[in-house]
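Sanity check

After download, print the first record. It should look like this:
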Amino acid sequence: MRRLLQVSIAMFVLLMMSFAQAHEGHEHGPVTMKRAVDIALATARDASLHPEPLLELPQLDQSWRDLPANAAQIYENGRGYYLVSIANPAQAKILYVRILLDGRVDAANFSGDFVSSAATSSAGA
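Expected structure tokens:
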């Protein structure tokens, strides 16, 4: 009887751990266009606070922090990614941010030119 209780408790603990792990702050399925725009705006705001070395993006001017939501739009809906353009009239610049379908920011630059083979997502295809 004692062994059955120990096994039952162990199984219960393992079951609870799997539920907790399965719901830690991540997307379920591909991100929406709206969510991609939100992620791109957040990326620009973050880059105005500090450089983003993984994206090879220097620290942006403070004006990128206060852009309204309508400054960003889907520029391209590619296979496995969204390319979002963010217009900053104060600097007369457009930042392009590539968001993979799983919500990760893949790249960002001011030219809009990206190597297409790098745009792969675990949520795509």
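If your output differs, re-run the checksum step. Summary of this record's structure: The two ends are 50 Å apart (CA to CA).
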